[in-house]
Amino acid sequence: MTILVTGGAGYIGTHTLVELMQAGHQVVVFDNFCNSTPAAVLRVEQICARKVKIIQGDICDRQALTQVFTSHQIDAVIHFAGLKAVGESVAKPLLYYRNNVSGTATLCEVMAEAGVTRLVFSSSATVYGDPQHLPIVEDFATCATNPYGRTKLFIEEMLRDLQRSDTSWRIALLRYFNPIGAHPSGLIGENPAGIPNNLFPFITQVAIGKRESLSVFGGDYQTPDGTGVRDYIHVVDLALGHLCALERIMDKEGVLTVNLGTGQGYSVLEMINTFEQVSGRTIPYQIVDRRPGDIASCYADPSLARHELGWVAECGLKEMCRDGWNWQQQNPTGY
Ligand code: NAD
Ligand code: UDP
Questions:
Q1: Which among 11, 128, 148, 232 is annotated as catalytic?
Q2: Is 148 annotated in the active site?
């Protein structure tokens, strides 16, 4: 198949390109590089020893998108393009609604005009807000706590409405938990601009000496050691989940909403300990106040993904730390 990958130059996009190409698919990348670089796609070419078609463009630009569909025979779209910084979304909500929500509406309109109705969308566990129970099952109530999360919720609803209006659409809404790590080659990985918002890239930057120490946000949560618990998932496992979702929607009508997580939660202190063991580096840290908006614990019930997609995350926390550290060491200043 030929798959259009919006946001394909980003962290999850590049890892998914590798798995798509290694499974024999053709890929077309469409990205405006607002949070990535074409160099990342060149690394994908290096891993796969194949050229990738890269188109620089914005998903809000209808003409540019239409051009992609008229000049390529696209079978399905994996839609990663979006802005994802929670703090920035609070400061600039309209930017997030325009980029993420309007951009997705434009993409779907252009897809419909081109007769392409297979779509895999990057949603997030953030749509569960602060869950009442754990592990999190897909039919739990949704409730976003910030504009970024609301863009994911609105897009999910918009795509369900779209499918109700035209049942030829086949859509997978993938709710990611916490992707970390990197491709084992060390050629692609997460490359945050500025100070990392997320735990794992912050830890690797402390380990490489780029940052002095880690602030652990809160030591008084209702968790075994008082620090926040999350379901970290190896980005390659996550990428493979997209291939399974793509295969699934080719022969099943409707909207499939599914968690992509391991089902295992780890605390911040467990993460630090595992990373120290794997890397042999010490991570200096201090426990500080909670980060506003954070929840205590979040981990998936991954059974639906197993039943519906035949997909299970294979990698454990040590492999995530090993591969993320390998990427950081090989690329101390990113791409
Ligand atoms: P990323 O920022 O690395 O990748 C997103 C890509 O989209 C970037 O290459 C960026 O340049 C591109 N992009 C953004 N707006 C665009 C636009 N208007 N037109 C064209 N390209 C545009 O992020 P990622 O971590 O790879 O995340 C991919 C998707 O998964 C996002 O939608 C994100 O919200 C979602 N997600 C990520 C996480 C995570 O922890 N990384 C968790 C849950 C959901
Ligand atoms: N965290 C932390 N220090 C940091 C970044 C994150 O202690 O510099 C904690 C955060 O409070 C949460 C966990 O690490 O408990 C995962 O945070 P991240 O931002 O990576 O993911 P999210 O909160 O979006 O699940």
A1: 148
A2: yes
